[in-house]
Records
---
Amino acid sequence: MTKEVSAFEVASIPTDKEAIRKYIERAIEACRIQVYSFFGFVSYADPPGYKHRIGGWGEGRWVSVEEARYIEYFRVRQENEKGSGLFDNEADASLAVHACTGKIVLTAERKNKSGPLKKAARIGGWIVYLREYDPREESLRCFILRSVAGKPVPIGPINAESISL
């Protein structure tokens, strides 16, 4: 799970929905879901209270060349900060990077909703739309595997000129 999802979105669930936040936190712990971020250094130029997306020693991991290219490709405008401390589509952009580098991303978004996840799906990222899942027809595992079946592993260098959307 990306830091943008765990440290920002889950942590910002309002107090009137505390039960759902605690449920998510317990599920993350019980299922041993790892939260990770890319390695980076804090800048003293950051404003006070700035929420860092990067992780330092012992927390972050090195970013690959391919991931760095996708990070740049899916970069969001830092204009409209939400209550979570993230900018519009920032968590989706981080997930899109992972979907394009060999990880399966599950989403409850509509398939036709514009944004980074749709963009990632259009260029071969492994995005699974849970709204299309019908538990009466198959197991969740089978649905996920069927959703990515036949798609090549989306790992490899990109260049923005070669991607037309």
---
Amino acid sequence: MTFMKAQSSVPAEESPKLEPSATVELPAEPSPAELRARKMLITGLVVAGLLLLSLIALLVFLSMDAYQAAQVGGPPSPGSIVVGLLRDAAIIFVAFETLLIGLLLIILMLQVQSLVVLLRDEIKPMLEAVNETLATVRGTTQFVSHNVVSPVIKWSGYLSGLQRIAREIGGLRESGRGRDPKNEE
């Protein structure tokens, strides 16, 4: 993952030099969000395991009950026992699928949570650095506009006005030379 480096207004000679061997160490302890996520995952896995074990125990109990009913010679026929066992197995299979989907939803929630942590801890500071750089550029633009461009435009206007006045004065002299003051009377 690459990170954007914000440019500073400090000249290169004054900026601190980093040694090439300097490395960034990750914190040894996980963040509170990671601890919470691990705790939720372990709790979900324990609950899912207990539900699966209870479903297996229920299936065994139902199988033994159906077998005893068949041995006693009571009204249920062997076909109805097999159909009952298949029905129970299908119910258990659907319950297991539901459990698996729930587990996958928990994993999805944890991934979304890690994405939010990533956005908050890494991308937000980069965006703040970009905003700071843009503010610096905006300030520099205003400074240049106010202290360089505006005076140049004003002086250009003054010089243009002086040039026009000089042309008018020169034009009056030329028109004044062409006339004879004695003829005007």
---
Amino acid sequence: MIHPFLQSTLRELQVFLQSRRFWGTFAAIVLLFAVTGPYGTMESMAFGERLAYWLTLHAVAWAIAILCAVMAERLLREVIVSMFARMMTGSLIAALPIGFAISLVDYIFTGETTTLESGLQRALFAVPLCALFCLLTYMAMSRKIAEAAVPEETSPGTSILDRLKPENRARCCASPSRITIPRW
């Protein structure tokens, strides 16, 4: 059995993965960065390389930010009342690993070596971006995240088959009398 913390966290992560709005926003931001070429990427990279760079960087950074925000939202529920404050806490904490992830992506694409100081500088630079990311995510998806965070009510005696929607049951499962469970 999966721990309730993991079940809730996985449900909340699935909200992001199944959201068209989330993926549309992600694609628009990556495209915006690839076209405009900020931070010197316009001068140093061709469009294809720039697109790959920004896609990789955003995929890694967004994954870290979402994971940290969702975990903080779940772990701090008893301590911090506001869901926005919990998510913001997680997003700001995510700035440190994001700073070093940016260093890794830079090393892969440019060969620029990373020091502890440069990783920390990138993390500091990521703090306001993480806060902005959290604000946008909260405005776009807070209702869906809150719905996913509420565990489904089931009674202890309810079987797994009873929890499934009838259309999701296999033919052999349609009739409980056909199921044999070995007794050890």
---
Amino acid sequence: MKMTNYQTQIITDGKNDTELDLFGEIQMAFKDSSIICNIDMSDIDHYNHHRHLNNAAYPRYFEKGRDDLATINGLDKETLLPGDIAFLVKNAYYDYITPVLENQEVEIRSRVVSVKRARVFLEQEMIYDGKAVSKCAAEYFFMDLKRERPIRPPSSVFQ
């Protein structure tokens, strides 16, 4: 069932008003990220004759994309750590579509899909020759490092 008309309510964190939809999704605008990565030879699986990117190395490339996305949206460690806030991964799921071979250059595209309370959902794609060779769906959250508890996105995210 597709909902095309849903209600919103206004919540406040004391500094900013933010729209929160019926499902607890915070409505914010984020910039997408796109970075180019050269496949490092140390990430190649040398135990097969195809010499493709080792499956354990894919998360490192997606993390580079996430770092870039965080930086351009003010969620980087330089912005958050002074306030004792961290932006941490909770879950990540990878889909390996086509092998990435040595000496290839890939593009990592990252975007925020939604923010629900303390959680941020990302979708990422690893692109080679215009086609997705791998995808990642990840759930991140904000952590108050002093209290060691998840928190809603900090007010700096809304500015």
